[in-house]
Structures
1.
Amino acid sequence: MIPRIAIISASSQVGASTALYLRVFKKANLIAYSRTAYPAPFFDAMGIPHRILPIDRDAQREELAQFDLVVDFSVPHAEFWENKAILRAHLTGLFESLRPGTLFISMSTQNAFGFRDNDVFIRKRLTDWASPYCSLKRHGERLARRLGRKRRVQVFNFRLSQVHGFLQSVSHRFCEEISGSKSLMVAGLATDRVNTMFISDLGEAILQIASGQLRPGNYSVLSVPQWTQEQLYRYYQDWCRSDCDVVFIGHKSRSTLAARGISHLARAVEKHRGFIDVAILQRLPRIAARAKGIHRIRSFTRQPATQGPVVHRNLLGKPPLPILGDPRGSPTSVLVRERRMEETWLSALGSAVHYSPPLTSEA
Amino acid sequence: MGDRRGDGGLSQERVSVGVIGAGSFAQNNHIPCLLARPDVELAWVCDSNTSRLRKIKSMYGVEGVTTGNLEKRIMDADIVLIAVPYGVRDCYYNLCAEHDTAVYVEKPFARTLTEHDAIAALFPKQALTIGFNRRTYRNLWAVKTAFSEELFGALRRVAIRQGFFGLSGWSGFRSDAQLSGGGILIESGIHLIDTLIAITNPSAVNIEQCRMKIKEGIDYHTEALAVFSLSTTTIEVDIEISSVQNFASGIWFEFDRLILHYPILPDVPVTLRDAKNRLQGRLDLEVSGATSVAESLTLTWNDCIKVHRMASGSTITPADTRMTTEVLDKLVAEASS
């Protein structure tokens, strides 16, 4: 039976792409919800029903009662000291509108494991202090579980790895760099496993939940089996039809002593940054606001840094949670699906523009 | 005005600036930029949203004023930054013009030439600065030099492209064409068109073809062919601007001998490309200009303030940007025809 799925905040990049995947491959009956009418042309062109989620609680309850599964892509975008309150209000309201027995997926992120920006391999930390984003996402996961118990809603928190796909900005960046470079340096080994996923992985993970195969809880979502760095870059070479030479430079540091010293100092400061943000500033909004003000003013008196050679860095290693994804998601099959989704979307849009740069033989 | 910084009378020499509209761009860019300047006293910030004013007060210690008592404050200010959405600016233009207060207005400035000229007519020539701050980018000046000195031969063809997928309605602002002025074209694509005009200084621009995905006055995707009349020749310009598709972005200049890629970000260098778009090198000319958004705002404010204080120099005026509005006007007209 085809599941009935509601996608909340479908205007987000990942939400819109997931709706597109489920629609193109006819995997679900879905309705895309957003707060404004701005994304309507995208969904109209794809024949995906689109509605503005009612603010009134009764109307929202009536609206959401028809679904087997509600998938929430909302992320608050205010200041970090304001976001938890916004998320709390959003989730509390949403759960009041869900009928008991509904399946609910909340989109979290791998950042919730607590790794830091300069971690090479994914790490799990007990404290929230890696970043305000980690703290916010953990807060969202806990709150969703608590509200789910109270309302008898089955809650699944998806810790998404880095999301790739032709509509994602991450993929846009990969394409810009791979199609515009003769060669590219990548930190780590070609065989290192990366924490990445494609939209099909998320789509299939959602369908596994909808089918009732899994127990409520936290899950990692990523490509299954995990892609290697070599597979990831080969994919983009194929996608962009680029002959860019990708060089994996390994894990050994090649920096000078001075550079290592500066980097060590920066890491030491960065190490405490999350703690300061989460444990102190998040609780003291007035001081947080003032600190941000001072930081912004100083940014106008600093000279911009000069750029060195760019080295691509990806988050490596295996995440410490059960993994969901598309079990048939080999690089070849992902490429075929992504191309089909892109062709469908460009044809619906009536676009004659392709990714390749203009005025070149690739155009 | 009080000496808020307590710097012993320097404030008498400072230019007093007021800000109307405390949205995120003003909050994170204009306001700190002005506060970082010793020659400016940021006297007040006005917004209809009182919680936003409280936040500004917490972040920067700047006094917030409500729209009710704005006229008196405009009278006392030397320059007012208008950073409210496009659709609600008319009354502020009129108030500033009435009190001979100079204005720095964020883009988008106007949708049509008629509107452009009507706003310009309210102010003396150099009393209105338009926030096309990317005109200060170092990259723009580098390409302008390469073009005018024909470093790589004559310019043959140009392609303007901006494709970033994003469907967020920004709390409703973006989905109201009356408020925002339109879609992605006027919101940010206009910067690239303005950049090309600043580089090539065409005497006329005609739109040969234009197809837009547009709904309720909001454009999402534009594909157009323009013809720029330059001093000795004409060139074709492909324009592709989209908020519903990702594609390689920037401006590509095809010269006799190679292709130059002008990137959207100011800290990324202009690069030399071969026919397969592969990197051949960087355009490294001795030109000055901004290499960050922050620096570009500082430079634009420098000109605006210098014109006000010394009555000399020049700022980005309606006359400078008239052609940009004309292109926008013609694109929409061609798409509707």
Note: Chain B is about 35% helix and 25% strand.
2.
Amino acid sequence: MNKIFLIIQREYIIRVKKKSFIIMTILGPVLMAALMILPAFLADWSEATHKNIAVLDETGWYYEKFKDQDNISFYHVHNDLETDKEKALYEKGHLLLYIPRTELSIPVYAELFSNGQSGLNLTTYIKSVMKREAENKKLLASGIDPELIKSSKVKIKLSTIRVEEGGIEKKSNTEVEVGLGIFAGLMIYFFIFMFGVQVLKGVMEEKQNRIVEIILASVKPFQLMMGKIVGIAMVGLTQFLLWIILTGVFLLAFQSGIFGGSPDALDMMSSQSQISSMAVGEGAGINDPFAMATEIISGINFKIMIFSFLFYFLGGYLLYSSFFAAIGGAVDQDADTQQFMLPVSIPLIFSVAMSGVIVNQPDSSMSFWLSMIPFTSPITMMIRIPFGVPVWEIALSMGLLVLGFLVSTWMAGKIYRTGILMYGQKVNYAIMWKWLRYRH
Amino acid sequence: MLALEAINVSKTYINHKALNNVSIEVDEKSIFGLLGPNGAGKTTLIRIINQISVMDEGKILLNGKPIKPSDTTSIGYLPEERGLYKKMKVGEQAVYLAQLKGISKRDAIRELKKWFEKFEIGSWWNKKVEELSKGMQQKVQFIATVMHKPKLLIFDEPFSGFDPINVNILKQEILKLRDEGATVIFSTHNMASVEELCDNIALINNSKVILSGGVDEIINRYKPNIFKVNYLPHKPIELRTELFELVSEEQNGNLHSSKIRLLNGTKPNDLLTTLTSQVEVHGFNEILPSINDIFIQEVNQTPNSSNE
């Protein structure tokens, strides 16, 4: 037992001391924080430039309807297209909205000239104004009062509320859950792969540089294999923990530092959405989507999320890394690993590929079974958990995963101990099967 | 007292029999040579003693008791195919290997410093293994094998990769370890070192022990009873054909030398008496076979049925 601890210690320390580990540990949270801050930052930055739009409306239908917005001002011009284009674009650097005269009863065509990008908000706004106006005109032509239509419009607010056992009600929002589920699933996928491959490489290193026989004169092959697997798992957990802590630190530092005086990044995210909802012209049902998101996020049980993330990462990693260890023990050359890596990776890739289907129907029987089978459950169950999964399902899935990795490590141990001292043998599945059944 | 005894050990791999009823006896505080051509089963036997492989049948007794997993701490093993972690520092690595043999970190460092000084490699402590030459790595491996003062030392081809100077240092160290009370098993193809170092040997071929015993006793057993005599003057010697057989004659400068085989239990003195009455004897010595000759003779006699 003492020896396996020594092995775990060595595997852990050499990896944590590596430059690549330190770089990854710092870079990961920086990227993560950037991913959360950058969209808001960029949106703010692009909205900050003020746009002036000259409106040349030959139909006379629309020009009065354009109202100045936060970053957009409209003014009228009355010359011809060439002159106004010259003036607006080249002299002033403004944009020109040209609505040509038309034979149609209702003009629905316009051109927007600009020196650069006109921006989605602007085009959306112009289109919505023209659309509303044209529709009103059409309604009037048919003898219907547009005000009647307007007053008859209703906005339906649908809050989805999940009633859990004991009558606790929780607001849920599918988009947030989808995002969270897929994010967690992908993280599990990356972690299993990243650290599983480290097990493979570590085992192959020992075999290739022939230290393995020296070590095996002191410890049992299973101890060496498990020591390596557990040591690397702890590296993974360390990295995960540091990522969570550092991401939080970076986010805090960014909010208080760079946005010191101005409203913080998260406020900006919501103000950005307000612009778009305002552009539609009608009062959006919910004014602060961010506040809503917070409400929903607080509805998700993060204790369960984090606990199950750690559990499924560890369980999935133990399951897959034992296969990786067996492969590393069996082959001599790096090139030979490919043929064995593919079938091992397929269930992982499959569960990521199925994530779209699972978030659409998290309660379907396919989702259920995929989250029970140990090969796919770590990813699938993590995707499902934000949607709320009965406790018995999680427990069963976890139990099956434990059973799965116990069987897989037992099998891997048998292949590993025969393969690790076998050199120059071209390994295939038939030979591995023989090793598996080989009585030691 | 036997330090190690293997009794009727057999081991079959998936498609080949590696050991077939192999028995060896290793005396305490002696050097035991395990000889045999490639693929004969030496390494398999060594791995079984080290409990890396498991035997199918038979028994291994260590100091008279069946060997058990905890015995690995009292065995030092230098495998034929050996390496080190390339990215790890020499000192760290040696300490790690010592700890795996059950030595505390502090004791390991103290003991290692001594050995590093003895081999004059103290400056390597903080170097990475990949910076060392192969011969340098072998020294580190040797130290890692012996530093926990094991009762039983097993060397598989210990001299491969060493230059002659270091081979000599190593031989001295092995002899010293034996004198200090360790039992040494070593497997090699280097027959000269076998004669020089070993007290007893076992020759394994085709998974079986085909010859074993003390080195002197085996040489004695295989000696052809031929004596080489140098004499003057140059003239034919008269020999009684029922007692002696002239094997060869040659002129060497002005000395004449003949090889004569003793037949039917004739004693060397009988030959001397016959010779001194006829010529003046300048040299008289017995021609003994080398272990190398015996090895080749024995291996060639046994049919080579299987190959690895």
Note: Chain B touches chain A through 30 residues (CB under 8 Å).
